[in-house]
Amino acid sequence: MSESSNRPELYERAFEQAIREHKDLRLHAERGREFLFVARELLTIPEDVDRVSRKLRDNRVDNERGRDFAGMVRLVLPRNPDEIPNIVRLLRDPRQWPGERVPFVQPHHAVVGHGGNMHGHPGQPPHVGTPLADPPKGSEGRGKGVVVGILDTGISKTAATDHPAWLGGAFVPKPDEVDAAYAHDDVFALEGGHGTFVAGVVRQAAPGVRFDPEKVLDPSGLGTEEDFARALSSFDEQVHIVNVSLGCFTQDDVASEPIRRALLKLPKSVVVVASAGNQGTNRPSWPAALPDVVGVAAIAEELDGTRAPACYSNFGHWVKACAIGNRTSTYLKGRWVLPGDPAVDVYDRWAYWLGTSFAAPHVAGRIAETMTTHGLSATAARDKLLTGAPFFPGYGILVD
């Protein structure tokens, strides 16, 4: 990709424009406390819904019950589309509930892909990549029999024919889980190809794995907690590992309750790996910061082979592992065009991208490879891989 000093700024502006144009999403832009939320929607839990609804009416806030999901109750506030953060702040105030337990409430948060960065931090679209050599002969046993669920933008409908050595036979394409990829014609959307790229990273570590892709994000890299919960419950076969190269910030950094509840429905034998996010902060990103999730930060590998925590990577005590975040992987044919940038770059099925989105699937693939190499369950392979390796404080165990 053509190098441009203002490309990160243009990429961020394009994300912000996508949010402004989204009819249902809003950005709470308080510096250092940013999060995206669904307009008009408030989430609570069944045991609290009556008290919350009554308190809203007492404060002249009209509300009606919407469709439940992931054990959550959705209240729709038709007259207050943009006031959800202020209403949540009011309802979380103990002074509103003298002598009572404060009920659980939260916005309906949006989730974003972690291939690009938002809110004033470095990030850029992929670079044109050099094709990788085919997997080494005999490597197909690494990860054989392991199924990795991928929650992302989907996988390209041409992935198996574009990359027969890497993705052929790895998954069964489903029409509703195809990576739409393009904004129009052959011009990529902001995170078009993200899921296809992630799948290739997993298979580089474990060429024998199969995938069950489920779509959470649109081609701009935007989805919701409801999309996450729906996708997580839609796997066609029993998965051993789930890769989640996306996440969300939340109001007051409170754990996302719908995401937490959705993950609790998975068998305990399933390992979930999630990217930590690319905002260069220690704010928790969900689901990566949940206790039973392997949150993955990014390490940058320079041309001389030196490694250090990537400047864009999120970090913190909640991060359990790290891996190289700048990688070449499977992609699609098409063009990248950013508004305000005269450069037009043409892709031929390969890309080079950086982000925690691409550190996480390497860890997922290495867990799959460890399962088959040592005859271990997913949880035992995870524990083996995350024990005794080099450790970066705040970034976790390094997984090569």
TrEMBL record:
<dbReference type="GO" id="GO:0004252">
    <property type="term" value="F:serine-type endopeptidase activity"/>
</dbReference>
<protein>
    <submittedName>
        <fullName>Subtilisin family serine protease</fullName>
    </submittedName>
</protein>
<dbReference type="InterPro" id="IPR015500">
    <property type="entry name" value="Peptidase_S8_subtilisin-rel"/>
</dbReference>
<comment type="similarity">
    <text>Belongs to the peptidase S8 family.</text>
</comment>
<dbReference type="InterPro" id="IPR023828">
    <property type="entry name" value="Peptidase_S8_Ser-AS"/>
</dbReference>
<feature type="active site" description="Charge relay system">
    <location>
        <position position="194"/>
    </location>
</feature>
<keyword id="KW-0645">Protease</keyword>
<keyword id="KW-0378">Hydrolase</keyword>
<feature type="active site" description="Charge relay system">
    <location>
        <position position="357"/>
    </location>
</feature>
<feature type="region of interest" description="Disordered">
    <location>
        <begin position="117"/>
        <end position="142"/>
    </location>
</feature>
<feature type="active site" description="Charge relay system">
    <location>
        <position position="152"/>
    </location>
</feature>
<dbReference type="InterPro" id="IPR036852">
    <property type="entry name" value="Peptidase_S8/S53_dom_sf"/>
</dbReference>
<dbReference type="GO" id="GO:0006508">
    <property type="term" value="P:proteolysis"/>
</dbReference>
<keyword id="KW-0720">Serine protease</keyword>
<dbReference type="InterPro" id="IPR000209">
    <property type="entry name" value="Peptidase_S8/S53_dom"/>
</dbReference>
<dbReference type="Pfam" id="PF00082">
    <property type="entry name" value="Peptidase_S8"/>
</dbReference>
<feature type="domain" description="Peptidase S8/S53">
    <location>
        <begin position="143"/>
        <end position="383"/>
    </location>
</feature>
<dbReference type="InterPro" id="IPR050131">
    <property type="entry name" value="Peptidase_S8_subtilisin-like"/>
</dbReference>
